[in-house]
Amino acid sequence: MADVHHFTYGAYNPIAAYLLAFLGSFLGLLCTARARDAHNRSRRNRWLAIAAFAIGGGGIWLMHFSAMLGFDVPASPVRYDIIHTLLSLVFAVMTVGIGLMLVGHGNRSVGRTMGAGLLTGTGVIAMHYTGMEGIRLSATIHYSPVLVVASALIAIAACTVALWFAISVRGWAKVTGAAAVMAFAVCGMHYTGMAAMSIELHPEATSRGGIRPLTMLVPIILITTATIVGVALSALQAMTEEEFTDGAGTPKRGVHAETPPPWSLKQASMGAIRLTPAARAVASSRAAAGSRPSPGPRSSPRPSPSPAPVVPPATSGS
């Protein structure tokens, strides 16, 4: 059996792996919290899909290959097959997404969460050992059945706890604590699975096809950056749409604007600016007429007395 090193660069790899697992879990839990507050199914599915990329792509897959950068076999060159590497990414994102969809809809229950955790944990195990199958060595890899079963149980337990956190925790403190627990479980599953392997060298150590481990550092950094930026932009866009649209996706009317008072100085001044000169003159005359004291009630005119008839003086007969 050949010597196997899992910490070639000391503590840098496990620390980087843990931080990636923590960051992916933290972003994923924030997205699942937003999914629980979504008012329709399409928006909830969108938040859950973002969470699947954050947890499956960032918290699990990137953590796995960051830790694998510390894997080395001094007696044989180590290479990685790109097809198996990308296939393991698909397993991680798809199974986490399916698990989140199962627990993200309907009533919360222990049975549903455990079933989804079993499915997601199986997918994480497939991700890990598919990635390990992509290792190209001049040797044969053997696995300890006991440690393989232990890593599988840890993966299922970690995924079940993660899904329970996804539908339960709220608040920055609880999300941070839950992400720390999830990152510890994911890293524990990975290093348990790595401890299960042993290597039997071939008689002649020949180089096999694949990419070098340090060559993977560039795509890992690029994928990490793209994942974080993509999750942040998708979350920002979803938050903006939820803020300014209703549940059906139509713009809200008057929801974010404060109801103006019936009259204000600003409205009066803006109204005066919009008036034409003729309208201003009419408004000024009306205002002046309104400022004069109103006359009292008008009485009906009294009829003027008719003049007395003039009687001519009487004349005597003489």
UniProtKB/TrEMBL annotation:
One of this protein's Pfam families, by short name?
MHYT
Q: Where is the composition biased (Pro residues)?
A: 294-312
Q: Please note every region of biased composition (Low complexity).
A: 278-293
In this chain the MHYT domain maps to 9-200
Where do the record's region annotations for Disordered lie? 244-263, 278-318
List the PROSITE patterns.
MHYT (PS50924)
Q: Where are the transmembrane segments?
A: 15-35, 47-70, 82-103, 110-129, 141-166, 178-196, 216-236
Which controlled-vocabulary keywords does the entry list?
Answer: Membrane, Transmembrane, Transmembrane helix
Known PANTHER family for this protein?
Answer: DOMAIN SIGNALLING PROTEIN, PUTATIVE (AFU_ORTHOLOGUE AFUA_5G11310)-RELATED
**Protein name as catalogued:** MHYT domain-containing protein
